[in-house]
Amino acid sequence: MTSPVVKSAITKRFQRFALFGYVGLLLLMPLWLFVLAPRDDYSNGFVFAVYILPLLLPLKGIIQDKPYTYAWANFVVMIYFIHGLTLLWVAQDELGYVLLELLFATSMFIGCTYYARHRGQELGLKIRKLKDDLADEKAAHSQSAADAEDEKQA
């Protein structure tokens, strides 16, 4: 039985940064949108589906500490960047909530990005580069063309 790969201090720091942002958004968004400043123009179901549900998608992978989940959670956090940056212009009366949202989204984005990178390196996970895939494909194609040529000559 192999021992689990120990996290370095920098990896742990980025994970805490990511979790600070994630849990912050997970607490802020429902509190803000349902309790502190409810949206009268939208149904609760719509607000839940658009602003809360996306945060729940990476929950299982984050709990299971999967670097891949941290990486793709950055796509989810873009919703909150867009929301926060838009509200900076149109909802100045909610500036405190907006700044908190942007703080948490920034923390989550930076933390998830670098946690996935460092933890992936620690675990030996690699994402192949496109140029490597193309080189392999070209080599395979060249080999099959050479094999076909050899068959014609035989």
From TrEMBL:
Listed InterPro entries: DUF2069_membrane (IPR018643)
Identification of the protein by name: DUF2069 domain-containing protein
Organism this protein belongs to: Pseudoalteromonas fenneropenaei
Pfam families on file: DUF2069
Domain of life of the source: Bacteria
Keywords: Membrane, Transmembrane, Transmembrane helix
Membrane-spanning intervals of the chain: 17-36, 42-59, 71-91, 97-116
UniProt keyword annotation of Transferase present: no
